[in-house]
Design brief:
By secondary structure, the chain is α/β, with parallel strands linked by helices. It is 33% helix and 19% strand. It contains 13 helices and 14 strands. A 7-stranded mixed sheet has the order 3-2-1-4-5-7-8, covered by helices on one side. Strands 10-11-14-13-12 form a 5-stranded antiparallel sheet. A hairpin with a 3-residue loop joins strand 12 and strand 13. It starts with a strand and ends in an 8-residue tail after the last helix.
Length: 393
């Protein structure tokens, strides 16, 4: 294949697209550009840069590919603006997270929820010098659920974008695609300033359903949660009681959350206690965590680097809290975003401090009987190398 392919972008969609190209086209003609924010370290999404380098793909910048003939450039969550006038090739493509011409621009995981859309989708289009205004090649639509959040919608975008890419890549390579201009009707655009993510206080002077849409549209734990009175709010429940007070009035506050009046129905906003879960796990305050158990929906919720409370306990030798969390269902097989498990962190803590209580507890409560043979073999080999086999006795 004489054609050259450059994948530019981030996250799962860029990784899987590059992986497909590496397996199906000449690696010598495959290039990649990662976003400037990609430091080559896995987070809640794996690093595109790290993956591409592991495949021996050539890393380039935009300037290095401007003059390439027979170039196919595909933007998949790429953060830089493209000036098509700089490219010798005109085979420049993007997958946008919306059903164009709707939702050009920013925050496509929030605005469809805020606007109570019933469907969204992904669009493959040619890149021009406008903002998501290029000719459409193909689209995939999908329904939005009644409990859709920004994060769940983003996950759908990633999955459907890969389907769209795989459906069209061979036609793109062979220039066997049909394009059509975007219509002017039903077109919309949202700029970077359309949502202020530094101030996500909930607007309470709305209907209960409008407020529910706000909470779900801003719910993307890895980045932010909406806020009310210095509390993070993860969920809400529309009650059957019609509001009798001024919208935004706090009817009742409990440890669980706030009951507020709205334009129409009373609304219960659930407080998010994950901050305190992580804080108390690190300081081994098991009694405080015990008092939180009734208010926590998920003991295995992760912080921004992928650590659960159990991992935090294992890292810091917090035995009493570790034991409490396991007894209440925390998963000892969870891993952080780097792929390091609870067991790994408990062993590392022992190696650094000679305190083996947590590591021994993991195996004393029968965990070793449900570890796969491969994992068990790897662990035994690791312990043998570290002269720590006695820990399994």
């Amino acid at each position: 294949m004489d054609k050259k392919i450059c994948i530019a972008g981030k996250n799962e969609i860029a990784i899987k697209a590059l992986d497909f190209c590496a397996k199906n086209y000449s690696i010598k003609n495959l290039f990649f550009i990662s976003n400037k924010s990609d430091e080559g370290i896995d987070s809640w999404q794996k690093s595109f840069k790290k993956f591409a380098l592991s495949k021996n793909c050539k890393e380039v910048n935009l300037e290095q590919i401007y003059e390439l003939k027979d170039l196919i450039f595909i933007s998949l969550e790429f953060s830089e603006l493209i000036n098509t006038d700089n490219f010798l090739s005109k085979e420049l493509f993007n997958i946008h997270f919306s059903l164009l011409p709707k939702y050009k621009g920013m925050y496509t995981s929030a605005w469809p929820i805020l606007n109570d859309e019933k469907f969204s989708g992904v669009t493959l289009h040619k890149i021009d010098n406008g903002i998501d205004t290029g000719d459409i090649i193909d689209q995939i639509s999908f329904p939005l659920s009644s409990d859709e959040t920004a994060k769940s919608l983003y996950s759908k975008y990633l999955r459907k974008s890969l389907d769209l890419f795989l459906k069209n890549i061979n036609n793109i390579v062979n220039k066997n695609y049909i394009k059509k201009k975007q219509p002017s009707f039903a077109s919309s655009y949202y700029s970077k300033s359309s949502i202020n993510y530094k101030n996500l206080n909930i607007n309470l002077y709305q209907t209960a359903y409008n407020i529910d849409c706000q909470i779900r549209a801003y719910n993307f734990r890895e980045y932010q949660l909406p806020e009310l009175f210095d509390w993070k709010i993860g969920k809400c429940l529309i009650t059957k009681e019609q509001s009798k007070f001024k919208p935004g009035t706090i009817i009742d506050e409990s440890k669980s959350g706030f009951l507020i009046s709205t334009i129409d129905y009373n609304l219960f906003l659930k407080k998010d206690y994950s901050f305190y879960l992580f804080k108390y796990a690190k300081s081994d305050e098991s009694l405080k965590i015990k008092n939180l158990l009734n208010y926590l929906d998920d003991l295995d919720v992760k912080n921004k680097i992928g650590e659960t409370a159990l991992i935090i306990c294992a890292k810091n030798g917090c035995y009493s809290t570790f034991k409490l969390l396991v007894e209440n269902g925390s998963n000892v097989f969870e891993c952080d975003y780097r792929g390091y498990s609870v067991i790994y962190h408990s062993l590392k803590y022992y190696q650094e401090t000679k305190d083996s209580k947590i590591f021994k507890y993991i195996f004393s409560c029968g965990v070793s009987s449900i570890i796969s043979d491969n994992v068990k073999m790897d662990l035994v080999t690791h312990l043998e190398r570290k002269n720590c086999l006695y820990l399994l006795e």
